[in-house]
Amino acid sequence: MEEEIDRSRAFAKNVKRIVVKVGTAVVTGKGGRLALGRLGAICEQLAELNSDGFEVILVSSGAVGLGRQRLRYRQLVNSSFADLQKPQTELDGKACAGVGQSSLMAYYETMFDQMDVTVAQMLVTDSSFRDKDFRKQLSETVKAMLKMRVIPVFNENDAISTRKAPYKDSTGIFWDNDSLAALLALELKADLLILLSDVEGLYTGPPSDPNSKLIHTYVKEKHQEEITFGEKSRLGRGGMTAKVKAAVNAAYGGIPVIITSGFAAENIAKVLKGLRVGTLFHQDAHLWARVVDTTSRDMAVAARESSRKLQALSSEDRKNILLDIANALEANEKVIKAENDLDVAAAQEAGYEESLVARLVMKPAKISSLAASIRQLAEMEDPIGRVLKKTEVADGLILEKTSSPLGVLLIVFESRPDALVQIASLAIRSGNGLLLKGGKEARRSNAILHKVITDAIPKTVGGKLIGLVTSRDEIPDLLKLDDVIDLVIPRGSNKLVSQIKNSTKIPVLGHADGICHVYVDKSCKVDMAKRVVSDAKLDYPAACNAMETLLVHKDLEQNGVLNELIYALQANGVTLYGGPKASGKLNIPETKSFHHEYSSKACTVEIVEDVHGAIDHIHQHGSAHTDCIVTEDKEVAEIFLRQVDSAAVFHNASTRFCDGFRFGLGAEVGISTSRIHARGPVGVEGLLTTRWIMRGKGQVVDGDNGVVYTHKDLPVLKGTKAVQNGH
User: Fold this and answer.
1) Cβ of 293: how many Cβ atoms within 10 Å?
2) Which of 275, 355, 433, 615 has a Cα at 20 to 30 A from 388?
3) Which of 402, 311, 313 is nearest to 694 (CA)?
4) How far from 38 is each of 34, 133, 160, 262, 653, CA to CA, in Å?
5) For residues 460 and 309, is the Cβ–Cβ distance under 8 A?
6) Residue 193 in contact with residue 181, Cβ under 8 Å?
7) Model-wide pTM > 0.85
8) Tens-place pLDDT, residues 357-369
């Protein structure tokens, strides 16, 4: 999964001096031998940092394990067959440390020398740090080395340590290389400490447990009582428990700490770019994260509870909430625009495609348009609790079919922050709870829009009616909540929609692609055809209802109309690609696939035999979204309108009209190409289901004895409301 920029890691931009600690499990592989490839990759990263002007201090474990492997070999070589039959004695840890340290340092010297970097061996003991003069001299020596671009390589001098079992004894100023690294970071006033492990970071439980989750930011007040640690490192003294203790000590001393994997390529560089890798420890972490997390289930349950409070309000009160939101959007236009500008600038700097950036932009006119659509929605007839059908089942037994909210909606959308406003207003109008997950490229815009909207919701309902999901990591958990979430609506790429459909039991409503066609028939009015084609492509090229393929009747090539249509598009900067017939005749590149959504000023052109050829092409290559015919022949138009199996089919009108606001729905949560529940622009009606309400006078079934069923349809007066009840 692609790492995201984490604003809580902004400190990385100001890092100069780094302490990197590599654990035994990183340094060595199977059998205690050096993991040459892995260690070489880490050395290469450190050499690059050194070259880029960073001050690098390395703390390396692995000497005891490496020495043990070499001494076992020596013991084997020097043993007789009889010796090998006897129980093997445990090797002395201090001897292992002495032998292994020289081998470990020899490797570092050889490797760094290949990169034109000088290293220095720095062996220390716990007792040395009790001496103030030693600590002062240590600081001065390291400072001098760093000034000359030398990388000091620290390790505890276990061979001469006064502790009886240095690899077990956890007393003293430091007790292993994790705590030594933390101590050095504090003593040498480092800007960052990176602890490289054999796992990605700190998890809520053993990393091997599929229910364990990576903790991105450690909050002591929250996590110290929650975490279950696994076993210690297979080779070293400690494990994650030791790392967490060392990290907490350093972090609360003012040194940011990252625990991450030494197995993953470029993790050190990613940390310094501010990417979210591993687990961050920081003295201010409690200010960034809530001590009590809101789980995915908590958010969904809260949204449902708030939706029931919303449904209990009067129709006028719900209407006023929407009007308050519209006013709040206009009142906060400047701050919304400022946050959106930051998103747009970041997207442009990151090199996003022009079409994505275009969808991201929120101009002042867009905010006014959104406010207007919300007001239009507020003035529409209240959709909740309407009586759709009324039946006399038997004498004095009346049955009503009524409209009702679906419950809780999960909307996953990309790029367009205006979608958040439309979806939220529709959810409120239809009485549904809502969970929203927008794209990371619109993070700031989504956050400010969510705040403006939820601040306008009265406390009697609560802002938890609309939850904003901020991390992709939460999506898999949400998709499992089929008992709490009632409908998922993905708005985005084909890949996004497919992934969601394959990952959940919750019903999914949406469209994958917007491959819209305009077919220009031989009996068209030329000026009308040019207007419709140009508008369908150019009004908003990034929209899902923009024309992606222009189909033209073969006769229009001979009378010159095709050339006029092509010129109208090219004169406005549209790049054209042709099908097998059109590419040669128009001298344009041949398209690689008809099933392609450009979302930009580009489209495909193809020549067809007649209306039936156009229909066949649309059914074979289209996405069942929106398709249009331009013709004056009413019979041909009716054939097209009846036979094209798309969510929206138009005659002599731009595909851009396929929109909830333009259809008079007030707004839309998306355009559905599904054939179940809702199809086309999904407004309020698409977010409702039905309930049955029966009113009787004590009737019982009793085997249907004595009941005379009348099943008589009763008139329903416009605006008739059923007795409202919580969903």
Assistant:
1) 11
2) 433
3) 402
4) 9, 37, 29, 8, 62
5) yes
6) yes
7) no
8) 888 888 888 899 9
pLDDT classification of 727: cutoffs 50, 70, 90: very low
Q: Residue written as tokens 């956890």?
A: 170
Residue 378 Cα distances to 328, 409, 428, 720, angstroms: 15, 20, 10, 18
What CA–CA distance (Å, rounded) separates 374 from 429? Answer: 9
Structure tokens at 120: 């220095």
Tokens of 455: 């601040």
Angle, helices 611-621 vs 634-643, to 10°: value is 20
Q: Where are the alpha helices (DSSP H) in 171-225?
A: 177-187, 220-223
Radius of gyration of the chain (CA): 34
Which helix (H) or strand (E) segment holds residue 690: the answer is: strand 688-695
- How far from 482 is each of 212, 430, 506, 646, CA to CA, in Å? 21, 20, 5, 29
CB-neighbour burial class of residue 701 (10 A; exposed 0-12, middle 13-18, buried 19+):
exposed
Residue count (the chain): 727
Which residues does residue 468 pair with via DSSP β-bridges, in sequence order? 436
Q: What sign does the CA torsion over 701, 707, 710, 716 have?
A: negative
Q: Are 672 and 510 in contact (CB under 8 A)?
A: yes
Closest CA to 641 of 686, 611, 670, 662: 611
Are 427 and 433 a contacting pair, CB within 8 Å?
A: yes
Q: For 178, phi and psi rounded to 5 degrees?
A: -65, -50
Q: Are 580 and 605 in contact (CB under 8 A)?
A: no
The answer to whether 410 and 437 have CB atoms below 8 angstroms apart is yes
Q: For residue 556, count CB atoms less than 10 angstroms from its CB and return exposed for 0-12, middle for 13-18, buried for 19 or more.
A: buried
Are 545 and 628 a contacting pair, CB within 8 Å? Answer: no
Query: What tens digit of pLDDT does each residue of 677-691 get?
Result: 788 888 888 899 999
Identity at 314, one-letter amino acid code: S
Q: Alpha-carbon distance 366 to 212, whole Å?
A: 43
User: Under a CB-based contact definition with an 8 Å cutoff, are residues 650 and 627 in contact?
Assistant: yes
Residue 264 falls in which region: left (phi positive, over 0), alpha (psi -120 to 50) or beta:
beta
What is the band of 496 on the pLDDT scale with cuts at 50, 70, 90?
confident
Question: What's the per-residue H, E or C state across 52-118?
Answer: CCCEEEEEECCHHHHHHHHHHHHHHHCCCHHHHHCCCCCCCHHHHHHHHHHHHHHHHHHHHHHCCCC
Tokens of 74: 């020596």
How far apart CA 279 and CA 271 sit, in angstroms, is 10
CB atoms within 10 A of CB 283: 15
> According to the model, what pLDDT value does residue 99 have?
85
HSE of 270 in the Cβ direction (CA atoms, 13 Å)? 23
Q: Which of 434, 495, 499, 442 is nearest to 669 (CA)?
A: 434
- Among 256, 207, 196, 252, which residue's Cα sits nearest to residue 229? 207
Neighbours of 36 (CB within 10 A): 11
Residue 400 three-state SS: strand
**In the structure encoding, which two tokens stand for residue 73, read together?**
């070999």
CB under 8 Å to 451, separation ≥6 — which residues? none
Give the C-alpha separation, 68 to 564, whole Å. Answer: 83
The H or E element that residue 548 is part of is: strand 547-553
Write the pLDDT tens digit of every residue in 63-117. 887 778 778 777 776 766 666 666 666 777 788 888 888 888 999 999 999 999 9
Please provide the distance, in angstroms rounded to a whole number, between the alpha carbons at the two ends of the chain.
38
* Site of tokens 């040498």: 188
